[in-house]
């Protein structure tokens, strides 16, 4: 196997650890001699919660960014082709490596953050995230092509109402409840979904309610009320499929930056999944942006050990290594 192709295999393998909606991992990679192709896997789309595949695209975008981080850490320059309009059976994006040169220290650090990043649903520290750190997180998001609108106190209460209304709407949907039961709880030996070991044993006391997964986990929720948490909205200017893919890349960039600053990041997709609550988020942005996700940020409680990684599908199920192409 050529050096370039080996680097692409390693990038696809690193992308397996990207965050995804309910840990569905709805992506598939094809490694070719000179490029890496990213495909969506429709079978792992949440049809009830995500009928328009917005969260599927966000998830795939996070995987795409993870692959880029892996290439950067090995010093490979690269270009990304993201088709403006997506067609069935065509790649969502194509990564093409260029020249290899010594990797920058920041690229190596980003890869380390990729390996330790977690989704932590427990309460956070009583200490607030410093303004200087929030500024760095906003900057990291903007560098990835999106925006991060930090909510004021009144807007946090508006977000709490929107989340509550979204949860009520989904709780009344039998299809959504059945879908949730399919992907959440238990030991998850098949390599997807959220196991009980990654869920709080009781509902954490928070200003903005976390998603009700309708099942208890095994992790202590933590003490306190999360009054020190910061809430924000990840947003952009477009609502096309390619924009949601880029939103996932921005989320990944933000999450790695947060991890580097010992900041816990918890995404809220619920209010984006319901049209009328998505519009409520849009109003928080002054009607000038498209909301992609609501986000909780908080300093990690030093008394908490890191939660376990959620399971991952084996590489053989998500990575196809194509035969060397003939000239």
How would you sum up this structure in a few lines?
This protein has 327 residues and is α+β, with helices and mostly antiparallel strands.
How does this structure look, described?
The protein has 327 residues and is of the alpha+beta class. The protein folds into two domains: 127 residues, NADH Oxidase (3-Layer(aba) Sandwich), CATH 3.40.109.10; 169 residues, NADH Oxidase. The chain contains ten helices and nine strands. The strands form two sheets. The protein has a five-stranded mixed β-sheet. A four-stranded antiparallel β-sheet has the order 5-6-8-7, with helices on both faces. It is globular. The mean pLDDT is 93. This is Nitroreductase.
List keywords for this structure.
single chain; 327 residues; NADH Oxidase; 2 domains; 10 helices; 17% strand; globular; flavoprotein; oxidoreductase; Nitroreductase/BluB; oxidoreductase activity; Nitroreductase-like
Task: Show the helix and strand layout.
Layout: H1 3-15, E1 27-31, E2 36-40, H2 54-73, E3 76-81, E4 93-100, H3 105-116, H4 131-143, E5 147-150, H5 153-171, H6 174-183, E6 230-236, H7 241-260, E7 263-268, H8 270-273, H9 275-284, E8 290-299, H10 315-318, E9 319-321
Parallel strand pairs: 1-9
Antiparallel strand pairs: 1-2, 2-4, 3-4, 5-6, 6-8, 7-8
Helix pairs in contact: 1-2, 2-3, 2-7, 3-7, 4-7, 5-9
């Amino acid at each position: 196997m050529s050096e370039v192709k080996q680097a692409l295999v390693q990038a696809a393998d690193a992308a397996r650890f990207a965050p995804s909606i309910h840990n569905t991992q709805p992506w598939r990679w094809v490694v070719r001699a000179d490029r890496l192709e990213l495909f969506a896997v429709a079978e792992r789309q949440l049809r009830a919660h995500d009928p328009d595949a917005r969260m599927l695209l966000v998830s795939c975008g996070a995987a795409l960014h993870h692959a880029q981080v892996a290439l950067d850490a090995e010093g490979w320059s690269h270009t990304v082709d993201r088709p403006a309009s997506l067609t069935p059976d065509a790649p969502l994006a194509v990564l093409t490596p260029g020249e290899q040169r010594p990797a920058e220290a920041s690229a190596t650090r980003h890869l380390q953050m990729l390996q330790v990043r977690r989704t932590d649903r427990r309460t956070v520290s009583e200490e607030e995230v410093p303004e200087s750190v929030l500024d760095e997180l906003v900057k990291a998001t903007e560098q990835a092509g999106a925006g991060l609108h930090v909510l004021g106190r009144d807007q946090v209460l508006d977000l709490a109402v929107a989340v509550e209304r979204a949860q009520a709407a989904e709780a009344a949907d039998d299809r959504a409840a059945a879908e949730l039961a399919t992907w959440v709880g238990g030991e998850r030996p098949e390599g997807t979904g959220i196991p009980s070991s990654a869920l709080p044993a009781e509902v954490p006391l928070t200003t903005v309610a976390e998603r009700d997964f309708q099942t208890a986990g095994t992790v202590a929720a933590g003490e306190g009320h999360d009054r020190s948490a910061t809430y924000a909205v990840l947003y952009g200017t477009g609502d096309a499929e390619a924009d949601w893919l880029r939103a996932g890349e921005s989320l990944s960039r933000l999450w790695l930056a947060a991890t580097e600053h010992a900041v816990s990041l918890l995404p809220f997709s619920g209010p984006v999944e319901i049209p009328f609550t998505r519009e409520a988020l849009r109003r928080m942005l002054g009607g000038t942006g498209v909301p992609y996700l609501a986000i909780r940020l908080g300093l990690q409680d030093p008394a908490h050990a890191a939660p376990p990684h959620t399971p991952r599908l084996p590489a053989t199920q998500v990575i196809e290594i194509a035969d060397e192409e003939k000239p």
